[in-house]
User: What shape does this take?
Amino acid sequence: MKTNKYLKGFVSKELEEYGFSFIDSKTQPWKFKRSENDVEQYICFQKSNFKQGLRVYFYNSIDPTQYFISDVIEDKNSIRNKKYNRDFWEYNTPIELEEIIKKYVSIIVKFAIPMFSVMSKPILTPSDQLKNELIESYQERAINFAQQNGLSLDCLLPEKIESILKKYEASEFDELTDVFLDSASYITKFLVETYECIWNNTRLGELLLKKEDISFYRFSPLEAVVYYWNKSQLQSYKIVDGIELISLINERVDMQNTILKSGQT
Assistant: This one.
């Protein structure tokens, strides 16, 4: 089955109801586009370069970030698989490919299109002044934040931070300086003391997970809380996922180092 032809036929008919039109092209990714409130929105179908697989992602003229199906549905593990095949649904036959495309269209209509209003929000980034204030005051702010919210400094609860930030969804960005700083300070203190993360000298406000002078992961607490507050409905901005990834990487690096050291003795 020629994917281009099927997308132009079946998928076009399904998406035209929502204002999307197919951008005719012989090369991928194959795109559908609509304009809404002066924002151009795109739905893209892309084949894998490694195996027979197809994925869908979205972006817009305000925020060029590529959002995947797993960013708009909860059960991301059902799609996000394999190291080099992120978010691809794999298939073996043209019939399976056709079925996958139909499933994608169903998910797009039910979950992705309603999320375009969120995806199309401008990216908000904390200022350098706020990042410097975080570096200078996170210790004191973290302690106060924990006491005010009944939290422990020894056990980070990112879900709690997310719930606190959600309370301010209707507030304006400029009104939430202390909320952002306090939340980021709580995260920072935990990462510094638990995983010995250090500040990145080349990127203001960014923490590095380093082991024996090798950087394994970068995380910006202040950006994380701002991005989540601005687009909390998207899975890719979940604070809990970032913290869990740091924990997992730290565990694996320690395990590898232990194995290497034992092999040298």
